[in-house]
Structures are given as C-alpha cells and as structure tokens.
Amino acid sequence: MALTTIRRIYAHAGLQSFVEASGGLFVVGFLVKQGLSPSFALASFALVLLSRFALRAAVLPLAHRYGLRSVLLLGVVIRAASYIMLPFVSGLGPMLMAYILVTGLGSVLYWTGYHAYVSAAGDNAAMGRQVSIQQATTATVGIVAPVIGGVLLSWVGPLAGFAIIAVFQMLAGTPLLGAPNPTINPESRADPDIVRFGRRIYFAEGLQSGCANVVWNLALFVTLGQSFENFGGALALAGVGAAAGSLLIGRLIDGGRAAHSLTLAYGLGAIVIGIKALAWATPLPALVATALGALVAPMLATAMLSPLYAMAQRSQCTLRFNMATEGGWDLGCSTAALVAATILHLGFGYTVPILLALAAIGAIWWGLAQWYRQATAA
After folding, report:
1. Worst-scoring range by mean pLDDT, 94-103, 230-239, 317-326?
2. CA-to-CA distance for 79 and 86, rounded, in angstroms?
3. What is the C-alpha separation between 142 and 266, in angstroms, rounded?
4. What's the predicted TM-score (pTM) here?
5. CATH code for position 73
6. Can you tell me the distance from the alpha carbon of 277 to that of 351, in angstroms, rounded to the nearest whole number?
7. Residues of the domain holding 359
8. Is 91 exposed, middle or buried (0-12, 13-18, 19+ CB in 10 A)?
C-alpha cells in the first residue's frame, strides 16, 4: 500500500490513543466508583476479554465480504456506543452484562481489524520505525489526554464526559475513510507453525499487560484516593518521557540490532515490574513507578509488535494470523485479571498479581529471541 496509507494510520493512531488515554484507562476505576469492588471490577474486565474471544469468529465473514478497513471502522462505531452505555452501569446487573457484550464485540472488531490492517499496510524493512512512530504518537497524546479525561469525569460528570469521549472515538475513524480497503481471499490460510508461535507470544503479552498495566492502574487509582483528576494527572506526568523510548527501540530494530532491543526493553520492563510491586501502596513511590512504566511501555510494545507484524505478513494471511494470535492475548490478559481478582477477594494486596508479570516478561523475551535467531539463520 502507498505511504499515504501509513500516514492515515498514524493520524488514526493519534486520535485512537486519545480515546484510550482519556476514556479506556478510566473504565476499571469507574466501575469501582460505581459500586463494584476492585475484585469484581477486574472480573468484569476479564469477561469483556472472554466475550472478545468468543465473538472473534464473527470477524472473518465480515472481512471477506466488506474488507479489513470496514471491519475496523465498524469496531470504532460499536466502541463509541459502549462509552455511551458505561455511565448507566451501576453495580452488578443487566446493564453491566450488556456493556460487557457490546464492548467485547466492538473491541474484537476494532483490534483484530486494526492489527491485520497495519500488518498488511506496513513495510517489513521499516516495520520497527513505523511501529515506533505509532507508539511515539500514542505516548505524546498520553501526556495530555489523561488530564482531559480526569477533568471531564470529575467536572462535567460521567454522562457528558463519556459522551464526549464517544465523539472522539467516532472522529478516530475519519482518517481511514479514504484509505484502501484490503479484502481477504476466502481460500487463504495462515501458516500454522507461525500462528502457533505468535499465539504463544500474544498469550504471554496478555498476561504481562494484565498484571503490569490493568492491575497496576487499578492499584494506582485506589492508592490515589479513587480520584479521576489525580489518576489522570499521574498518567499524564508518566507520558512525558515515553516518546523517546519508543523511537530509540524502533531504530535499534530496523538497524539490525533486534537482540539489543529485546534485552534493553524487557530487561528494563522486568526492573519496572519489581519496582511497581514494591511501590503500589504509597502515592509518591507509585507515581515514580508509573513514570518509569510509561517510559518502558512503548519500548516493550515496539519490540513486540514489530516482529509480530512481520510474522503476520510471513504467515500469508494477516487476518487469520491476528484472529488466532489475539485470542491468545485475550486468554492471557483475562487470566491475569481473574487471578488478581481472586487474590484481592481473599484479602491480599496487589504485590503478587503484579509480580506475575515477571514470568510473562521472560517468556516473551525468550520467544522473540528465538524468532530473530531463526530469521537470521534463514
């Protein structure tokens, strides 16, 4: 695809990252504010992921008939509807279940379509740079968006606040309206060996993200007094140094230093997880740990997504590859959320759930190192 398509993806990524940082990051905390215990809020999040896993088969016939871009944009619209539904959730009940199903459907259409679309549009020789630019865009937006999200939810209230976020979710689709719409050959099949390899990586990444991000953000929200403004300010402060880290790791990958990028990103990631496990209960150390985590997060994402997009291209069918492998992410992240929910329900703190991310970090590093060794040998 033309370079203009990549630029459209960059613009979309900027708007979408605003939605995630001003709205998506607040969802679990909002459920706690609405009366759910932290353990039930995490369990609800896990159910969203499991509904995605169950609904993923719906992506394939839609992509066959309407194309990848159409699937992605349909996901955008349904996700916007889920934000409008969220303020009406008040504890356990039918509205919570409806929200879980709608969010799961919108999320699976959007993310499966997005990763398959980027895999198809990307240039394999410059994949590290292209992914790092997307991550740098996300990090830059993440400096401002959490503050806006916190102010909206605190000052204008959840109803108007999430409605505004829904409008931005719709706007996020506009850069892609004139972009190519790749179709999927119904007869195409993804290489099963590459799919199995990618699924294992994605499962470990889901486990890592669930422990080090979802559980951590809930711990931070609770530690900061369940204040949307304080939480948003903490996330905004954390975003200041993240862009530089993502650009550095992308240059290392495209410069043929992929092994160095893995060691740097996942070594720092393991250190930050240890710090988070010790710091979550006290506000100032928790803020420092959040800043360190934000610096490392785009480095981890770039180090992982670059080879995964390359795997998707090599698999011969980017959609089927992403459908199979993202199911692994859903299972990994939902496992982390359910384990953490159980531990919290039993009366323990957040330390053990956060430390579980260390096992996932090691598994991702080992798997990606194997991939690069195989690619070099080939």
Report:
1. 230-239
2. 11
3. 22
4. 0.83
5. 1.20.1250.20
6. 5
7. 3-377
8. exposed
